[in-house]
Amino acid sequence: MEVKDILRKIRQREPQSAESFLALLLDEGVVKSAVWQVTEGAVKILALGENQIWEKEEDIIKVVDASIPEINPEPKKIIFGLPPAWVKENKIAVEKLAILKKISQQLELSPVGFVVASEALVYHLKTTEGVPPTAILVGITGKDLKVTLVKLGRIVGNQRVNRSDNLGADLAEGLSRFGPQEVFPARILLYNSGENLESARQELMAYSWPEQGVNFLHLPRVEILPDDFDIKAIALAGGREVTQIQGIEMKSLPPAMPLVVETPPVTEEVVDEEDMVGFLKEEDVAQKTLVMPAEKPKQFAPKLPVWRLPSLPSRPNLGVNFPVAAVIAGLIVLVISLLAVWWYWPSAEIILAVKSQPLEKSLLVNIDPALAAIDVQSQTLPGRPLKKTISGEKTTAVTGAKIVGERASGKVIIYNRTTKAKVFTAGTQVLGPGGLKFTLSGEVSVASASAGPDYTSLPGKAEVKIEAVDIGTESNLASGTEFSFAVLSRSDFVARNEEALSGGTSREITVVAKTDQDALLAGLSEESKSKAVAELSDLAPAGQKVIPESLTTAVLEKNFDHEVGQEATELKLALKSEFSILTYDPQELKNLIEDKIKELIPAGFEYRDQGEAMAFSLKNVTKDGVAIFNLDIKTQLIPQLDLGNIGKNIAGKRPDWVQQYFTNQPEIEGAAIKIRPAWLGPLATLPHVVKKIKIEIRTN
User: Fold this and answer.
1) Element (DSSP H or E) covering residue 326
2) Is 214 helix (H, G, I), strand (E, B) or coil?
3) What is the CATH number of the domain that holds 176?
4) Quick check: 535 and 390 in contact, CB under 8 A?
5) Which residues cross the membrane (predicted)?
6) How is residue 307 annotated by DSSP?
7) What is the mean pLDDT of residues 431-454?
8) The whole model's pTM is what?
9) What is the rounded distance in angstroms from the CA atom of residue 158 to the CA atom of residue 178?
10) Maximum CA extent, the chain
11) What is the pLDDT of residue 245?
12) CA gap 11, 509 in Å, rounded
């Protein structure tokens, strides 16, 4: 057959369509799914399924089926993503394995393997961010929290905590299980569940960690991962393993690297770290027990990917005989070219975890609006006051209670048994049964007693109106009730009603209490302060930051729609306040801090700007308007390392030798090494060209 016929047949050969896979994330109460395939060495997500909630095991098949996206052709193979709690001693827990078999058999899917969800997340974070992550992963479901501590791309451990109504306390409990002396990364990543994670983020940001004994280097930053981040991580981790099984070269975009600090001949830069993602390779786990791969190496160095050379096709007999010498010469050129590539092409990126030394310092810092330039000697920074008027309204339910009603009234006849007439003025108190008090409504004169027939004594008498002192029905007394006077003897003066007293009523109403006004004012004031800080921060000039602790308030208008004691169901407050705040230049403050910290650095250590934790607290303001602050600083000092000499010592060495080299350095706690290209496999060494070795120093 001629050469042109062979080429024509090759061109006419139709490419085979790529096989699709189903990634299924199973968690306590949550199911997520995605369909993906490996196309030209890259994992491509074809469709994402709907998140589903499940409670009972008997519902799992229906829930999983509802989650799987509709796509043609349907995937025939499945990769499971499992939470750490489902994997015991490198094997899937027996009770969970039954669930996976049930899913595989009833949905007619062939299991390929599984990945542990937390490991897949770490790998995906490294891929998307370009650096081995150091963070706390918090998976939130309605039942529990899954807490994963990650340092430099390595999972230190996983903890599961049952949910309560206090999310911060739940996370603090999970972190405490890693040990009381643990210093935790100041980055918390929330994922999973489909719940409103924004409210969870706000709750964790407001939580008081120091009071619970949780030790962060500085106030942690709380972030929310995208809702599909975990299922995509499962798919990408599965695709990575499938490409290795099939001998495909994995393609990926180079991760973004941070700013490189040149330290000739070695530079520092953040690098990637290969994650160990547990994966069971191409076996039918519906027929066999799913098992985890062998325990991950304890070395800090990443695992080099499995790779293989594809089998070379046999050379077709084209009817052309090549000279042996030409073939040998070609092979020599090929070998020399490969050696040159091996020598000059590789590059290495190394992260060194060093033993840092904490340093804390308290300073008195002055912010002077009248100052034009920083005064290091007096620790005074120039500041600029900003002002903003904020108006707001707030309504609250009232809590006060009050009894209202009418007083009972009627007429009584006063009897005088003495020999002298008696005048009773209006307001004279009259006592009824049970201590009830009444007063005379008008003045009345009662004549003295007189002699009656048969020499009997007839008391003098006079009628007068009375009214109860207190409101209520208790003073509605029946006719014939006898009354007395507080300071007069009953034997001399008494009173009696011929008709019943009436008109006394009472009822309870809600009124404005003083505490209602105070609480409403405090709440609206705090809301106005938060709004003022946000708006004043937007008004700050470029390169300036506001100091929230310097915020001062002047109330311009304060109007309640009801006064204390008035009947109401709601209380409304309209508040208008003027806020003032100071700004400063962070670079000037950084220069001042460096000047003071350098005096405290011990021999063998150095200070590098790593975003110190700073806390301002306003001490007082002078009559000249100078604000004096207490500034508490927490930072980390790192050992002094000769990176140039390190680069020379490790150039051309094998990764295991380099790991041992770093292990022997007392100031280095661990090292993550990444060598490119990855397909060098067992031939990989660190670059022989020192300039192609990049080193970054991290504190643990």
Assistant:
1) helix 324-344
2) coil
3) 3.30.420.40
4) yes
5) 318-345
6) -
7) 90
8) 0.40
9) 9
10) 171
11) 56
12) 93
